[in-house]
Specification:
The chain is mainly alpha-helical. It has eight helices and no strands. α2 packs across α3.
């Protein structure tokens, strides 16, 4: 799909609003999907000439939650809510809503960017294990894992002996 300039999108949306032409007809003439054209027209209806000048693209979690609450309380579509709140792509709102439905408000918080160090990951894992398991449970698990490891080593050595009977056997 070709990338259209902001001026061209505004011109096409205004053409729809001013002329007697259907979404399908105009979308075919312009060479875009009908749903995209509908979104362009919604943006122009709500924001006029500033429809394609998006002010901000990194939204705080409170704003995301407000958009989701607006959708659920007022029964607006994701596409129309993103036009009303002047969000460049309705897919962003769809992702926010999906995260919110699966994991709640905390999922809308921005994630830390950058490389994490190995020590911090190990500390987190250690804290999680210690909070979920008692010392006695960990000792039992360690003992089980050691026995399992010894069993697998013995099994491996027996298989190797069976495969090479000419070699001298160890005691």
């Amino acid at each position: 799909m070709a990338k259209f300039t902001l001026e061209y999108k505004l011109q096409v949306a205004k053409r729809f609003l001013n002329e007697l032409v259907s979404y399908r007809e105009l979308a075919n003439q312009v060479g875009v999907d009908e749903s995209i054209l509908r979104y362009w027209v919604m943006l122009v209806r709500y924001h006029g000439d500033q429809a394609f000048a998006f002010p901000y693209t990194n939204y705080p979690s409170a704003f995301k939650l407000r958009v989701i609450q607006f959708i659920t309380e007022k029964n607006y579509s994701i596409r129309e809510a993103s036009a009303i709140f002047h969000i460049p792509d309705p897919c962003m709102v769809r992702r926010w809503k999906k995260k919110w439905e699966t994991a709640g408000e905390d999922a809308l918080e921005p994630k830390e960017k950058g490389l994490s160090t190995m020590t911090s990951n190990q500390n987190k894992k250690g804290k999680d294990n210690s909070s979920n398991q008692s010392a006695e449970d960990m000792k039992k698990e360690l003992e089980y894992l050691r026995m399992e490891n010894a069993y697998l080593k013995k099994l491996k050595s027996l298989v190797q002996e069976e495969q090479s009977p000419t070699k001298s056997k160890r005691k």
